[in-house]
Amino acid sequence: MSNDFIPVQWNRQKYIYDAILITAVLIYMLSFIIFGLRAQAADVPILTMRALGTCAIVLLHIILAIGPLARLSDRFKPLLYNRRHFGVLTALIGLAHGGFALLWYHGSGVINPIASAIGGYGDYGVPIEFPFESLGVFALIILLMMAATSHDFWLAYLRPPVWKALHMGVYVAYIALIGHVALGTAQFDKGAGILYALVAGVVLISSLHIAAIFKGQRLDKTAKYGEDWINVGEPMAIPFNKAVTVTPPDGERIAIFRHAKGVSAIVAVCSHQNGPLGEGCIRDGLVTCPWHGFQFDPETGASPPPFTDRVQTHEVKIEDGNIWVRAKADALGTSRTATQVQS
Amino acid sequence: MLKTAEYISYGMGLYLLIGLIFGLYFITRGIRDEPISGKAPLLRAMLLPAAILIWPVLIRSKQ
Q: How many Cβ atoms sit within 10 Å of the Cβ of residue A68?
């Protein structure tokens, strides 16, 4: 968390994360080129271009897998941290691949390279002649847009809903890249290995997302609704310093935490990057987002000073041994003393 | 098809040129009220690519 924006908030974990990431990319690139040369698949420039392209698409698969994996198991949550550096690196590798391909295949003609790549010599109506580069250019523009706006400054400046909508473009970029490979290099692969790998990747990413959605629905407390109160169940059913989440008929999901002071409820959407606060825990008395560690007081919804982030609170009461939470969120800035639990 | 592709590429070039002009204005004058540490030239330079790419969004957001 920061109060003023600075270029990059480096810390030891980020250095380690980035070092591992860059080392893995370099090992992949070198292995790809060395094995390619040994198999006499192509010469160094072509292999470098392919290594960059395959590396970018592998990284994109990993990025898309991290979110659902972290929802399925806590062991993957550390991967969420610093995921934006992962994304920026992917965009840069994609840019290197695109730039290389543009110069290599389209840079020596009489028409300008961009025009040549996006359809100068192809036919959009014929699959085998489809100018697949146009899909790559389209995906690259989205990835670069996301990388360029990944800094927290843009999140604050554009506001979370706009920023989030912009960054959901990763799925559009992914579909475009699948098309780019399927209509491009996969068509000329005699063994169909690329196509199989591509299908396996799509199945994996889709399955993980579906599994994460099902798990999220299973974890959501089955709530009973009164007029505007939701029955969350017995307090002791909530693990200590953890939360259950309920979804009101209207509005954002609600995270109900049981902690040292009692039971408190806040909106389950982190004000930083819309992270799932209900999947976080209480640390040092503060609700801690599992994505980037942003913290909020469970009674006030406010981040500890000097930070100014806030989430809305919800009114909580205990009747007949059950927790009831008001479906309508309080006005931003409203404080709610934790409701005592009789043990 | 070739003519259309050329027009699209010129359009992209024009978009980026407008973005560059707008972006330079944005990082030097447009964000004077934002909580940025000191003069932070590196941060401002880091913000330039996004300003170039999403300038229509930035113009709309401040209208």
A: 21
Contact A10/B at CB under 8 A = no
Q: Which residues pair with A286 in a beta bridge?
A: A283
Residue A225's pLDDT band, with cuts at 50, 70 and 90, is: low
Asked if A122 has any chain B CB less than 8 Å from its own CB, the reply is yes
Write down the ipTM of this complex: 0.90
Shortest CA distance from B31: residue in chain A: A157
Question: With an 8 Å Cβ cutoff, is A158 touching chain B?
Answer: yes
Q: Order of strands, edge to edge, in the sheet holding A295-296?
A: A281-283, A286-288, A295-296
Between CA A238 and CA A258 the distance in angstroms is 6
pLDDT of A178 > 70? The answer is yes
- More confidently predicted of A329 and A109: A329
The count of other CB atoms within 10 Å of the CB of residue A104 is 14
Task: Please answer whether residues A52 and A36 qualify as being in contact, where contact means their C-beta atoms are separated by less than 8 angstroms.
Answer: no
**pTM as predicted:** 0.79
- Map tokens 């360029």 to a residue: A148
* Position A36, amino acid: G
Q: How confident is the model at residue B39 (pLDDT cuts 50, 70, 90)?
A: low
For residue A151, the distance in angstroms to the closest alpha carbon of chain B comes to 8
DSSP state of A39: T
Kindly tell me if the per-residue pLDDT of B44 is higher than 60: yes
The closest of A64, A35, A29 to A50, measured between CA atoms, is A29
> What local confidence, expressed as pLDDT, does residue B38 receive?
58
Q: Which strands, in side-by-side order, build the sheet including A229-233?
A: A224-225, A229-233, A322-326, A316-319
| Whether A213 contacts A229, CB under 8 Å | no
Closest to A93 measured CA to CA, from A179, A25, A149: A25
